[in-house]
């Protein structure tokens, strides 16, 4: 019963997505669909109860007892169908698990891509600030990276005490002094 409601709910959501331009009460529409399904199920149950009573002459059993008895009889008379039903349910659960795993992997990839882009943008911003505003740049020497001024000829001392000389062309050289 819940599975049927869920399927119809999903179908209705699909219809909502397709026709979202129209200004209708979609929640009310879904409520009406669910009410219609409930009414159809109640009518089917009543038909089963009436048929059972007419065939057996049992007018004293409650509808719940009759429906339970008819279901038990159905299970006894159709064991293959119910065994296949369990197998289909197991396959469905497996497919759902695979879908969830795939969906989660896709969400993880999307999130990781977003974080990578964000980090690259942050790094580009930091580089811009360092190069354009502070007029400094990173220089690699002897396996270390130093941040030194751009186009400021003369001697410069790095954070670790290493001395560099910048010529008039803006090229740096290590100075042993």
Structure notes:
The protein is an alpha+beta fold and 177 residues long. The chain has 4 helices and 5 strands, in the order H-H-H-H-E-E-E-E-E. It has helices at 2-18, 26-56, 63-77, 79-133; strands at residues 136-141, 144-149, 154-157, 163-166, 172-175. The strands form 2 sheets. Strands 3-4-5 form a 3-stranded antiparallel β-sheet, with no helix packed on it. Strands 1-2 form a two-stranded antiparallel ribbon. A hairpin with a 2-residue loop joins strand 1 (136-141) and strand 2. Helix 1 (2-18) packs antiparallel against helix 2 and helix 2 packs across helix 3 (63-77). The N and C termini lie far apart (87 Å). The mean pLDDT is 81.
List the helices and strands and how they pair.
Elements: H1 2-18, H2 26-56, H3 63-77, H4 79-133, E1 136-141, E2 144-149, E3 154-157, E4 163-166, E5 172-175
Antiparallel strand pairs: 1-2, 3-4, 4-5
Helix pairs in contact: 1-2, 2-3
